[in-house]
Amino acid sequence: MTATSAPPSRNRFALQPDVPLCQTDLPLDWYQDELRPYAEEYLALPDRRAETIFRWLDGYVLPAREHFGDALLLLAHFYMGGEIVKLVERYGGSVADSYQLALQARDNPQKKVIVESAVHFMAESIAILAHPDQAVWITNPKAGCTMELLAKDFHVLPVVDQLEERYGDGFVVVAYMNTSGRIKAIAGRTGGAVCTSSNAPAILAWAREQKKKILFVPDQHLGRNTAHRLGIAADRQLVLPSPAQGTLRLEDVPGGLEALDRAELVHWGSSCGVHTIFTPAMVRYHQEQGRRVLIHPESPLETVVLADGAGSTNYLWNEVEKAQRGERLAIGTEGHFVNNAIALGQERGVEVVHLADVPGFAQKGCGCATMSRNDPPHLAGILDLLRRGEAPDANRVLAGDVVDEITMRRDRLTEDERAQLATDARTALERMIAVTEAARR
After folding, report:
1. Which CATH architecture is the domain 28-145+372-408 placed in?
2. Residue 436's closest CA among 198, 231, 224?
3. 312 burial via Cβ count (<10 Å: 0-12, 13-18, 19+)
4. Residues of the chain with CATH 3.40.50.10800
5. Whether pLDDT at 10 is above 80
6. Cα separations (Å) of 140 from 151, 331, 370, 387, 391?
7. Can you give the pTM of this predicted structure?
8. Of 171-180, 262-271, 369-378, minimum mean pLDDT range
9. At what angle do helices 335-348 and 313-322 cross, to 10 degrees?
10. What are phi and psi of 293, to 5 degrees?
11. Given pLDDT bands bounded at 50, 70 and 90, which one contains residue 18?
12. What are the residue ranges of helices labelled H in 214-360?
């Protein structure tokens, strides 16, 4: 298949044609039947150099861009594995954090076909805020989040029911973006809101103004870090046991009902496996080496308070972009992101290392395995199938969809159920947007 070459990238993640692509090949049986032919072609390529990948991808992506024109929007998250962020930008797409991604369909009504290379909950947030004539597709429905896996609706709803029985309308749910639409809908129904790592302080401050008990779902570390930043005392917080331990009864929480009644902020007991590896000793090591330590707030509080700065992926990337030549940084977040930050630093004369890159630690550079499930064959395949009108329905994302990340079995709501859920979840997302934009003025 031949096609004219895409224009050179002018974006942040430009790949040089003679540089090898670092994306790890996935086993053939990880692909949907409809996408397997594209994977077979990809695996048969003679090498993984960018020039080779470009030539192959051009044959599928460029015809799709020509077919859809300005109606097509390609998206990826900063954390995408391998080089997908570079490929998405090369073909005119956008790479952003979860807050910016959620707004893409809402703020670009001319884009009718939206293809996201990231995780399912991000694509679902885009779909919830999308206009009725926009369709959201995900390159790999199995791309998910370990944190979100421990905050499914069947985990959270029994606890919410008990809270409603005990406190009536005296509590609200703040749902981190790393949750399904079903959890975001619970936030909307209780008068709460969604938040991201970038706006969590503003959202939690807003929630406190409601003078109600707050259930923060699902990341206990982002919750604790945000509470510390807002000055919420530790004895006014409560971390629930992990839902992996079974159905939770409120009377069994640490300290019992007395502790629960006293708590202003109740944290769901989930966390991100990528960010929990960072320790205070790692921070001290790099500071002793003369590096400025920057970290993501999904990391443990004890580590974050020692760092020189903490914030979202957008914050971390901006810090690298504005660092002075000769500056030395250690960044604590997802490994693929740090690898891209290292490349950016090399271009600017800034040393960047991964925070977990310390003597004696075996997990240095840990990346998000579930986000890495998006790769060049998934991107090529879904775009080509969309152009031909043969895209698998499993890749279409609607509000309320739940996908099993192992079997890819999907639970889809009825039209009426979906409409109600979308209304509630959109309410929570719109509250987040309103509070965030007001805080920026």
Report:
1. 3-Layer(aba) Sandwich (3.40)
2. 198
3. buried
4. 28-145+372-408, 147-271+419-440, 275-354
5. no
6. 21, 28, 10, 17, 12
7. 0.90
8. 369-378
9. 20
10. -100, 125
11. low
12. 220-230, 256-262, 280-288, 301-304, 313-322, 335-348
Weakest mean pLDDT among 17-26, 228-237, 284-293, 401-410? 17-26
Q: What is the CA radius of gyration of the chain?
A: 22
**From CA 83, how far away is CA 69, in angstroms rounded?**
24
Homologous superfamily in CATH for domain 147-271+419-440: NadA-like (3.40.50.10800)
Contact partners, residue 389, CB within 8 Å, separation at least 6:
none
Tens-place pLDDT, residues 81-119:
556 777 888 899 888 778 888 899 999 999 999 999 888
Query: Quick one: how far is CA 222 from the chain centroid?
Result: 14
Name 171's bridge partners.
213
Query: How many CB atoms neighbour CB 61 within 10 A?
Result: 27
In order of 69, 139, 386, the CA distances from 108 in angstroms are 14, 20, 20
> What string of DSSP letters covers 371-415?
GGG--HHHHHHHHHHHHTT---GGGB--TT-EE-TTT--EE---H
Separation between Cα atoms, residue 28 and residue 89, nearest integer Å: 26
Contacts by 227-233, CB closer than 8 A, 24 or more apart: 227/265, 228/301, 228/304, 228/305, 229/201, 230/201, 230/204, 230/205, 232/208, 232/264, 232/265
Percentage of the chain surpassing pLDDT 90? Answer: 71
User: Residue 302 pLDDT > 90, yes or no?
Assistant: yes
Average pLDDT over residues 376-382: 94
Q: What is the spatial order of strands in the sheet that 213-217 belongs to?
A: 193-195, 171-176, 213-217, 265-267, 237-239
Q: Can you name the CATH fold of 275-354?
A: Rossmann fold (3.40.50)
CA–CA dist 211, 390 (Å, integer): 51
Question: Tokens 């749910």 appear where?
Answer: 173
- Is residue 287 scored above 70 in pLDDT? yes
Does the pLDDT value for residue 284 go beyond 90? Answer: yes
Give the helix, strand, coil percentages of the chain, each rounded to 5. 50, 15, 40
**How far apart are alpha carbons 197 and 220 in whole angstroms?**
12
Of the candidates 438, 394, 404, 399, the residue with the CA atom closest to the CA atom of residue 33: 394
Rounded distance, CA 44 to CA 2, Å? 17
Residue 309: partners with Cβ closer than 8 Å, 6 or more residues away: 292, 293, 294, 295, 315, 319
CA–CA distance, 311 with 280 (Å, rounded to integer)? 17
Q: What separation in angstroms does the CA of 284 have from each of 262, 330, 345, 363? A: 35, 11, 22, 18
